Amino acid sequence: MSRRLSFYIHIPYCIKRCGYCDFNTYTPAELQGPDLESVSKNYISAVLKEIELAQKTVGAAEVPSIFFGGGTPSLMPAAELARVIQEIRDRFELSPDIEITIEVNPDSVSLDFLEKMRQAGANRISMGMQSAVPHVLKVLDRTHNPENVSTAVEKARKAGFEHVSVDLIYGAPGESVSDWQQSVTSALQLPIDHISAYALIIEKGTKLAAQISRGEVQMPPDEETAEKYLIADSAFEAAGFNWYELSNWSKPGGQCRHNIAYWNGSMWWGVGPGAHSYFDNRRWWNVKHPATYQQKINAGESPVQSEEILSEENLADEYLMLQIRRREGIPHRNLKDSQVSRAAEYVDSGHLDQAEWTAQKLVLTQQGRLIADRIVRDLVL
Ligand SMILES: C[S@@+](CC[C@H](N)C(=O)[O-])C[C@H]1O[C@@H](n2cnc3c(N)ncnc32)[C@H](O)[C@@H]1O
Ligand code: SF4
After folding, report:
1. Max Cα-Cα span within the chain
2. Which ligand is nearest to the CA of 195?
3. 3-state class (DSSP) for residue 203
4. Which of 219, 256, 308, 340 has the smallest CB count inside 10 Å?
5. Which residues line ligand 2 (CB under 6 A)?
């Protein structure tokens, strides 16, 4: 039986950088070169070479999932992304029920693109909705107007995508509780089977971080952001979207198997600049800039910038950090005795589920999910 290896394909381009985002992505102005259309062919050719390198390193493997993330994969011509799927198909064995996801931006997705991607084998769309409220989108520096999201989701369904997800962000400056309620309600009106909702993180060096430090906009209080999580979780659950990871909810059968592979500690290869990979207890990441990445790949050199070997202890801490966020939780037998006795306090305080605890499992309650990071810090000490 061959090994299993998921692929993450990074597409490091966006038309415009959103004010809060520090992902490894570049705009045409930052590239100081030709438009995105003309860079895509060269970029994808480098990606194909890295897939060849993956085959040489890993050997035979079955691929259960491919995830095109970014950046904005929907800026690439569909034929270029299809070349990537074909290359993986030629070099590895695709699982019969493979999940192939494409992240799209509601502004840059056409029916033609979606139909071509569906034909190429993609079967899941993840769309950056973020909010349904114009003034919140403006603070987030998003270019789309809220109506574009439902039009884009309709197109995805029309193109035959069975699995469609939207990403939401809560806790932006100026977002009231009722603004957030409106975003939650709007998301639930869409024909989708998955929702990711993340609390806004203010990343150093972003435009939004500068606006906050100059006092132009203020972050809402933490208690309000926690309240927004509870509002979302209760509304999603009532609408049949069950939480399966702290920030992810799905209808039955709609869970993202690619992300589950990350959380499970399965092996994956991240292709592209800045992408991380994990294989046989070794984690490595590629050089960050797309130009350097392409130079190295085209010169036949390794694109890896650095690597680390994970010790048994690193792996155990990571398992705890990721698995505690999941509805499945952590069996007591996978923890040290000292961790189980420390965790018992969180059962008494209502942060861990009592019935699951009795069944020898550690599963966060809704209140527990609000302090997941604190519980992890306490248990990995
Ligand atoms: C790479 S983006 C996805 C697709 C596409 N680029 C877009 O934004 O529409 C992945 C998701 O990460 C989330 N994200 C990015 N930066 C974030 C931040 N600073 N805080 C919270 N969530 C963030 C957003 O919800 C975003 O949709
Ligand atoms: S479109 Fe997505 S990846 Fe690009 S800048 Fe905005 S949030 Fe970041």
Report:
1. 61
2. 1
3. coil
4. 308
5. 14, 17-18, 21, 23, 25, 70-72, 105, 128
Give Cα 18 distance to the centre of its chain.
16
Residue in the structure block whose two tokens are 């603004």: 179
Q: Which residue lies with its CA nearest to atom 23 of ligand 1? A: 200
Per DSSP, the residues of 335-357 read S-HHHHHHHHHHHHTTSB-HHHH
Boundaries of every domain in the chain: 3-264, 313-380
Strands (E) across the chain are located at: 3-4, 6-11, 61-70, 93-104, 124-130, 163-170, 194-199, 242-245, 248-250, 268-271, 276-279, 282-286, 304-309, 330-331, 361-362
Superfamily of domain 3-264: Aldolase class I (3.20.20.70)
How far does the centroid of ligand 1 lie from the alpha carbon of residue 354, in Å?
34
45-80: pLDDT as tens digits: 999 999 999 999 999 999 999 999 999 999 999 999
Total Cβ atoms within 10 A of residue 47? 24
Residue 42 φ/ψ region, left for φ over 0, alpha for ψ in the -120 to 50 degree band, beta for the rest:
alpha
Of the candidate ranges 137-151, 238-252, 326-340, the one whose mean pLDDT is the lowest = 137-151
Does the beta carbon of 20 sit less than 6 angstroms from any atom of ligand 1?
Answer: yes
**In angstroms, what is the span from residue 13 Cα to ligand 2's centroid?**
9
Q: Give the model's pLDDT for residue 40.
A: 87
β-pairing verdict for 276-279 and 282-286 = antiparallel
pTM value > 0.90: yes
Question: Which residue's CA is the nearest one to ligand 1's atom 7?
Answer: 128
Q: 238: which 2 tokens?
A: 């009532």
Amino acid 148: pLDDT: 92
| Distance from the first to the final alpha carbon of the chain | 38
Task: Return the ∠ at Cα 168 (arms to 16 and 185), rounded to 5°.
Answer: 130
Residue nearest to atom 9 of ligand 1 (CA): 128
**Nearest ligand 1 atom to alpha carbon 130:** 25
Q: Which ligand is nearest to the CA of 201?
A: 1
Nearest CA to ligand 1 atom 8: 128
**Whose CA is closest to atom 2 on ligand 2?**
71
3-state secondary structure 64-112: EEEEEEECCHHHCCHHHHHHHHHHHHHHCEEEEEEEEEEEECHHHCCHH
